[in-house]
Amino acid sequence: MSYPGYPPQGGYPPQPGAYPPQAGGYPPAAGGYPPAAGGYPPAAGGYPPAAGGYPPAAGGYPPQGGGYPPQAGGYPPAAGGYPPGGYPAPGGGYPAPGGGFPPQAGGYPQPGAGGYPSMPPGGGGWGAAPGGYGTPGAQQGYPGGPTPGQPMPSFPAAPQTNPSMPGYGGGAPANPQAPAISKGYRGSIKDFPGADPLRDVEVLRKAMKGFGTDENAIIELLGNRSNKQRVPMVAAYKTTYGKDLKHDLKSELTGNFESLVLAMLMSPAQFDAFELREAIKGAGTDEPCLIEILSSRSNAEIHEINRIYKAEYKKSLEDAISSDTSGHFRRLLISLCQGNRDERETVDISLAKQDAQKLHAAGENKLGTDESQFNAILCARSKPHLRAVFHEYQQMCGKDLEKSICSEMSGHLEDGMVAVVRCIKNTPAYFAGRLNRAMKGAGTKDRTLIRIMVTRSEVDMLDIRQEYLKAYGKSLYTDISGDTSGDYKKLLLKLCGGTD
């Protein structure tokens, strides 16, 4: 098997004076080996192997008769440097005086970070696939060589590395890890092939210019671009026309359609920060919005939200939450907005059992409730660990933790704790429930509908659709169609991606 840009296995044909090739060997870098005259191998008196030299014959290193010229003191060299008359050879030998490789036409490329010249750093070391170097699945190391990390047979211990001679293959990890298995892309919006923001803003400008607005052109464009293709349109529009795209859209569009279009032109963290700000400012607080965002985002996403919130609104998110909430609910939100949840995938069952016992002792088995214990476990432990805790709790108490929370807590704290538990158990099912509650009944909670459809369209919308159908017996597409109308409905259905 060969890879684009690399020679077929078997290496390059041997050059005069070169090492005998080995199957699957490394191809030389451009301008490298074989060197120009005066390079390596050096001129007479230097280091070229005689018949029977490198690779060494059976029996180890030094090679048997006919190999490298023996040197006084043997290998490793005697204290005080190279033995007289040995290696390097005068007149262009290797290494050159002053450290490093001798200059030559094309030069030896310097070793790159984490490896040898011309080798891209491999994900998981040599022989790894796909980021590594060599045939996928092949054992790490040179063909015919020993297992990585094992000493070469019959070789004496190597001397300390000469500072002028970089270690070979220093970037290969001793215990390469297999890459995580990809579960596949579960979003409904994908990158559009060949999208160009400069061409896209021409479409938007034409749709808004003149009498009336071509909403269908806007829907078709934005509904077929991923977030990373939409966001650059804002800068491209200003560069091309010297005007603000969001301002022009606001002047042309109205209502929920306008809100949805503007949401789609923000990065995920920008939109989350904007939504948190809207939930906090003003007379009332949209507590479900705070809970939804902070309980479902990763540590990295929460850190970016915090950064943008401070930059945009000149106040930290934690301070904003502190001034707008109170009690144990405030503690829950502040814990979540730190973005310090353990994200390891490993689970210690004995620790999970201990945590389940602590939750039982803090709730069902206590007069009153120790909310701090719930806070400490639900906000700090990893999601795989907490799923094990929920299982152990069920086994121990014969009752679901979510039901215990509902019987022990009330108000926004109950809502927040239940949301954290549901989100950890099954994030798509949690969002399916949020969408259903946003649409059922007399009115529609359009802000919630817009936020979830925009933020999950490139994360897990396909899974949310499956959970929605399983829980409510109707497709999400059908419910959106029946609960919204006009251009707003058309663009929401683009984000939904299809019926089930």
From TrEMBL:
Keywords associated with the record: Annexin, Calcium, Calcium/phospholipid-binding, Repeat
GO CC terms of this entry: cytoplasm; nucleus; plasma membrane; vesicle membrane
Keyword Transport on entry: no
Pfam families per record: Annexin (PF00191)
Region (Disordered): 1-54, 93-192
Name of the protein in its database record: Annexin
GO MF entry, a single one: calcium ion binding
Biological process (GO), any one: cytokinetic process
InterPro entries: Annexin, Annexin_repeat, Annexin_repeat_CS, Annexin_sf
Source organism superkingdom: Eukaryota
Biased composition (Gly residues): 121-135
Organism, as annotated: Channa argus
Family, per entry: Belongs to the annexin family.
Biased composition (Pro residues): 1-19, 145-156
Segments of skewed composition (Low complexity): 20-54, 102-111
Domain free text: A pair of annexin repeats may form one binding site for calcium and phospholipid.
